[in-house]
């Protein structure tokens, strides 16, 4: 279901509620809601979800957690994708790990490569156990 946010830079719970009216929830096991915008806008707007996942790419830099701590602190899990590109975009995975343990120590973090599937099984297991 596509949700038009108009001039807003993020979804809100009201928009999601109206979109849910178009879905037969009895027919699905999981519902994923992808918010729009950057890492700043959606941080202050809970959507009524059971879990909050922040998916970012290494191409956003190894300082992403320091630059946008709120979204990471409010997430139940962080998925850092495209780890295979880290060396090509001069990103230090250990820096991301250190920042995560310092800024959001209770948040689970997965390092994935969707192209090869690396780390995805662990993330899917986390979803299923959720």
Description of the molecule:
- The structure is a single chain.
- The chain has 2 domains: 36 residues, no CATH class; 79 residues, 3-Layer(aba) Sandwich (Rossmann fold), CATH 3.40.50.300.
- Helices cover 29% and strands 11% of the residues.
- The protein has 5 helices and 3 strands, in the order αβααβαβα.
- Helix 4 links the parallel strand 2 and strand 3.
- The model has no long low-confidence stretch (mean pLDDT 90).
Features:
single chain, 130 residues, alpha/beta, Rossmann fold, three-stranded parallel sheet, 29% helix, globular
Topology:
Blueprint: H1 13-20, E1 53-57, H2 64-67, H3 69-73, E2 77-81, H4 93-103, E3 108-111, H5 120-129
Parallel strand pairs: 1-2, 2-3
Low-confidence stretches: none
Helix vs. strand class = alpha/beta
Listing every helix as H and every strand as E from the N terminus to the C terminus, the arrangement reads HEHHEHEH
* CATH fold-level label of the largest domain: Rossmann fold
**Count of separate structural domains:** 2
Measured by DSSP, the beta-strand proportion falls in 5-15%
**Rough shape?**
globular
CATH class of the largest domain: Alpha Beta
- With helices defined by DSSP (H or I, 4 residues minimum), what is the helix count? 5
Strand order of the largest sheet: 1-2-3
Report the end-to-end length measured between terminal Cα atoms.
24 Å
Output the radius of gyration. 16 Å
Strands, count: 3
- Summarize the amount of helix as a percent range: 25-40%
The fourth-level CATH homologous superfamily of the largest domain is P-loop containing nucleotide triphosphate hydrolases
Largest sheet: 3 strands, parallel
